[in-house]
Design brief:
heterodimer; A: alpha/beta; Methyltransferase, Methionine Synthase (B12-binding Domains), Chain A, domain 1; B: TIM Barrel; 2 domains; 4-stranded mixed β-sheet; about 15% strand; globular; binds cobalamin
């Protein structure tokens, strides 16, 4: 019955078109398509397809990012309806993310931040050259589930450990999980400093964050 | 390694008809990616960015200098720079910088069409030529790399190919410089994290050169400064720039724009943006001290690889653009290539290094760095550096001026030999045979000969060449007094930096 609409929803995600996906979400409500069906059978298949295309190398990072934006626009429209039916689609989790003290590399950090937000996390990007205490303070303020730390220099990797310690000292762990990344960072280093996870790129960062919040 | 006769003159040199001396100034590179109108359009675009958008400067002294110079300041540290400041700076900056060797002899005149090759810097990892293993780099690797560069005839300057994992992080830059200056007499391009490291390294260089004036007059070091982006200039970068300008020492000032993330995806916009940043640096250096030596970046217009999210070092698209623009300004350039995204010393690594080096040489790349890089600057390889030395020798020969004289035309010999004559026994043949380029790594054996020597690949032969050089080559030692002065500065820094005591060996 709604096949055409669902196909258009999928298309709007593939096209990375937030205006169109939001319009289609409104149309779904008007036409009485259950919001959860719209998400599951309309928009999510588009997202999956983009993910597969990226993994194969047919689609590029901006395709992925814009698909995420289109998804966000659609869910923003559907959210109130979902709440009415009790099937509330919550955010996946809250993440405080930044590049550690002494380090100004921001490109990778910003990519990770964009991808996490696109995947449905509430991301608090605290920028670059961020002191350990700032990470701990922000994590407490926003009730973070995860703190993400980027370091691109062998000399600033040690500052990741400082943040782990600051979170420990403030009694925020183990509730708040710590994930680390950046070119010189390794899984072994993550283990050594007692972090909860390591991701080699922005895609890995998303699956890591999902697994840590159990989603 | 056998050294072979190299051509008398190199590409980018002409002989002055009156004095008979080799000159390097004013020689145009044989290749320009951009047409003059395109350079003009890009330069205009950069000037518009500086005037219209402005640049954020995270160091108060830089803001003050620009304010006094006539820039409009808003938000406390955002400077909109009028074009006349840029035009003036382009007039006062020296059009030629000569890097010297450790003993103060002129070595590398950065001007005209010349291209000098050197390694990259600060790879956290090494592919060990002895074992093929990829492991965290150590201070001993920094020493080996410097010693190898010292020996390789086509490597013209030295950088610390590795960042040592067995050095206290806060001291790594000082230890890298000590390791280099003790193992090579060639000019050194150094990198430090913070301003304090830069001051220490300059103090070491002054001690070696025999004082601040000696170093200024005959600089054997230059500092490579990375800047956050075209329009954000971080504190450390600006402090280093101001410090070096104040001292009259060469700064290589490089704002990095990553297309699609920190700048436009299109090459023109990306280069206009990074060039705007470089020009802002130039203005600041000249406001600090008119005539301070400043080296422009000869790369830009790059983009993030949108499939892998890796920042590639050898992408083909922007090659030559920044060199064209730089030659229009007529200032010395610091260019990039000779590395590879490959993880091992293989065909890809050779091709990426070779093509980028050749284009660099044809474009007049002046100081051309990043030889020996693998894995987009995250891993370094001494064997790959040896391959690059071979490539550099090939390029020098392929681009050397061709001599056409009675001696080289040899018409009398041709006539004397007649149609069926042989040239094998002629003295002329022996006289000139070593002018040809002979490889030290590339294989020219016949098949049986190749098999007899083990039937090995280029990467194996390169690894063996590295081992042989490291076994044998002893660089001219640093005079004991200078070495002691350098050590004293490292020791003082170790005292100043409490964290230095907490060593972080074998982390990566
Ligand atoms: C671009 C760049 C810069 C730019 C940064 C611009 C900016 N605004 O961000 C500039 C020019 C400013 C710069 C400066 C310096 N740099 Co730099 N830089 C690079 C370069 C070439 C690429 C980094 C990059 O952006 N990659 C692309 C992004 C997308 O990848 P990424 O950052 O690795 O992030 C991905 C993953 O790591 C992961 N990830 C990242 N963060 C996180 C966080 C979490 C939680 C997770 C799960 C995952 C994750 O996901 C990301 C996306 O897939 C690297 C070399 C390299 N190949 O990495 C050198 C490199 C990192 N830099 C290096 C150096 C030495 C410096 C300087 C010290 C040089 C100097 N003195 O001027 C300064 C440092 C200044 C400072 N205090 O920080 C060295 C590091 C050596 C070391 N000690 O370890 C490198 C390796 C290059 C080299 N061989 O010299 N640099």
């Amino acid at each position: 019955m709604h096949d055409g609409l669902l196909a258009a929803m999928r298309r709007s995600i593939l096209d990375g078109d937030p205006d169109r996906s939001a319009a289609l979400a409104r149309e779904a409500i008007e036409r009485g398509l259950p919001p959860l069906d719209a998400v599951r059978h309309g928009f999510v298949p588009g997202l999956d397809e983009v993910g597969e295309g990226f993994a194969k190398g047919d689609l590029f990072l901006p395709d992925l990012v814009m698909a995420g934006e289109a998804m966000k626009a659609a869910t923003a429209v559907l959210e109130p309806e979902l709440q009415k039916t009790g099937a509330r689609r919550e955010i996946l989790g809250r993440i405080v993310l930044g590049t550690v003290r002494g380090d100004i590399h921001e490109i990778g950090k910003t990519l990770v931040s964009t991808m996490l937000a696109a995947a449905g996390f509430e991301v608090h990007d605290v920028g670059v050259d961020v002191p350990a205490e700032t990470f701990a303070d922000r994590a407490r303020e926003v009730g973070a589930d995860i703190v993400g730390l980027s370091a691109l220099l062998t000399t600033t990797m040690t500052a990741q450990r400082d943040v782990v310690r600051a979170l420990d000292r403030d009694g925020l762990r183990p509730r708040v999980k710590v994930i680390v990344g950046g070119a010189p960072v390794t899984r072994a280093w993550a283990e050594e400093i007692g972090a909860d996870g390591y991701g080699e790129d922005a895609v890995a960062a998303v699956s890591l964050a999902r697994s840590l919040v159990g989603r | 390694m056998r050294t072979h006769h190299s051509p008398a003159r190199r590409h980018g040199e002409t002989v002055d008809r009156v004095s008979g001396r080799i000159v390097t100034a004013g020689v145009a590179p044989p290749y320009s990616r951009l047409a003059p109108e395109q350079c003009a359009a890009l330069s205009e675009a950069s000037l518009e960015i500086l005037e219209r958008t402005g640049v954020r400067l995270l160091a108060p002294e830089a803001v003050e200098l620009l304010a006094r110079g006539g820039a409009a300041i808003s938000e406390g540290n955002r400077a909109r720079i009028p074009r006349r400041l840029v035009e003036r700076a382009l007039e006062t900056a020296p059009r030629r910088v000569v890097l010297h060797d450790r003993s103060g002899r002129p070595a590398l005149p950065l001007e005209g069409a010349r291209t000098y090759f050197g390694p990259g810097s600060d790879c956290p990892r090494i592919v060990d030529h002895r074992t093929g293993e990829r492991r965290a780099a150590r201070l001993a690797d920094v020493r080996d790399a410097a010693r190898l560069c010292d020996a390789l005839p086509n490597i013209d300057f030295v950088m610390s190919l590795f960042i040592p994992s067995d050095a206290p992080p806060a001291l790594a830059d000082r230890l890298q410089f000590e390791a280099m200056v003790g193992n090579t007499t060639k000019p050194i391009v150094f990198v430090t994290y913070e301003m304090s490291g830069c001051a220490d390294v300059v103090a070491m260089a002054e001690a070696v050169a025999g004082g601040a004036d000696a170093l200024r007059e005959r600089p054997f070091v230059a500092c490579y400064i990375n800047v956050t982006s075209g329009l954000v200039h971080n504190t450390d970068a600006l402090e280093k720039l101001l410090f070096l300008a104040g001292k009259g020492l060469p700064a290589l000032y490089v704002p990095v724009v990553s297309g699609g993330t920190s700048g436009p995806m299109t090459m023109a916009g990306g280069l206009a943006l990074s060039n705007a940043g470089a020009l802002a640096g130039l203005v600041i250096s000249q406001l600090k001290r008119e005539g301070a030596p400043f080296v422009l970046p000869g790369f830009g217009g790059d983009a993030l690889d949108m499939r892998t999210m890796v920042d590639p070092y050898c992408a083909p698209e922007p090659r030559g653009m920044a060199e064209s623009l730089g030659h229009r300004y007529g200032l010395p350039l610091f260019t990039l290539g000779g590395g590879s995204e490959s993880k091992v010393v293989d065909g890809q690594a050779s091709v990426e290094a070779g093509l980028t080096m050749l284009l660099g040489a044809l474009s007049g790349g002046h100081l051309f760095h990043d030889l020996g890089y693998l894995e987009s600057g995250l891993t370094g390889s001494l064997a790959q550096l040896a391959v690059c030395n071979e490539i550099a020798g090939w390029i020098a020969s392929a681009t050397a001026p061709v001599e056409i004289t009675p001696e080289t035309l040899a018409l009398d010999l041709i006539d004397a030999a007649g149609p069926e004559g042989s040239f094998l026994k002629l003295p002329h043949t022996r006289r000139h045979m070593r002018e040809r380029w002979y490889p030290t790594l590339f294989d020219r054996d016949n098949h049986a000969g190749w098999l007899a020597k083990g039937g090995r690949s280029l990467s194996d032969r390169a690894a063996e060449q590295v081992s042989a050089i490291l076994e044998r080559h002893r660089p001219e030692p640093l005079p004991a007094e200078a070495a002691a002065a350098v050590r004293a500065i490292v020791a003082r820094a170790a005292g100043d930096i409490p964290a230095a005591l907490e060593t972080e060996a074998s982390r990566a």
